[in-house]
Structure to design on (56 residues):
């Protein structure tokens, strides 16, 4: 839970809104590689949409 709380607010919102469970470490990896918080949030949203399409 501490890891989730340490993420930027945009990223936390994207993870919370996702229909699939994303581990906070995924976002942390992107952030450590130099991606901005907005970009990481968008990536999570895109990945979530792609996963949702596979199920439907």
């Amino acid at each position: 839970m501490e890891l989730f709380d340490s993420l930027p607010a945009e990223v936390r919102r994207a993870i919370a809104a996702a229909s699939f469970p994303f581990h906070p470490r995924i976002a942390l990896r992107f952030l450590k590689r130099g991606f901005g918080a907005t970009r990481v949030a968008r990536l999570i949203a895109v990945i979530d949409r792609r996963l949702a399409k596979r199920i439907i």
Observations:
- The chain has a mean pLDDT of 94.
- Residues 38 and 47 are 14 Å apart (CA to CA).
